[in-house]
Amino acid sequence: MAPAAAAAAGGKKAKKSSSDVSITIASPSQTENSRRSSLFSPRWPKIQNINSRLALVIKSGKYSLGYKSTLKQMRSGKSKLVLISGNCPPLRRSELEYYAMLSKTPVHLYQGSNVALGTAAGKLFRVGVMSIESAGDSDLLSVTSA
Q1: Cβ neighbours of residue 41 under 8 Å, at least 6 residues apart?
Q2: 13 CB contacts (<8 Å, ≥6 apart)?
């Protein structure tokens, strides 16, 4: 069996005899392990914790999705918590934080993107900003403010 064929079959290093070039071919199990390690990074339990509490808010509480409705809730003083996705534009984020400061509303910067926040909210679309009016059965308000 040729060295390159042995490397493709086993996923090990193979050396060519004519030069000192080594070829490494990753086996599917190695790439799968690297994906698993990224899923279980140190921030993963925190996101998982927020997502499970957010799912309970969606089921039993009151919330609104989107920039305009979040601003309306903050202006009327109904908002208890504002969630901003990680990839929200800086100007919009600073404007939301300013309104939240004026209305004395806590802000939580969600670690994931707007796609992840939409998925956590149980929606099939992107959510950049989310406002929670009442948490329902969830303890999300106490966890994010601490």
Answers
A1: none
A2: 7, 22, 23, 24
The amino acid that residue 105 corresponds to is T
Q: How many CA atoms lie within 13 A of 132 on its CB side?
A: 28
pLDDT in tens, 30-61: 544 544 444 444 555 666 688 888 888 899 98
Distance from CA of residue 32 to its chain's centroid?
20
Q: Which residue do the tokens 């303890």 mark?
A: 139
pLDDT tens, 79-114? 999 999 999 999 999 999 999 999 999 999 999 999
- What is the rounded radius of gyration, in angstroms, for the C-alpha atoms of the chain? 23
Which amino acid is residue 21, in one-letter code? V
Q: What share of the chain is helix, strand, coil (3-state, %, to 5)?
A: 50, 15, 35
Q: Are 48 and 42 in contact (CB under 8 A)?
A: no
Q: What are the E-state strand segments in the chain?
A: 13-15, 22-24, 62-65, 81-84, 107-109, 129-134
At 131, the amino acid letter reads S
The alpha carbon of residue 19 and the mean position of all alpha carbons in its chain are separated, in whole angstroms, by: 46
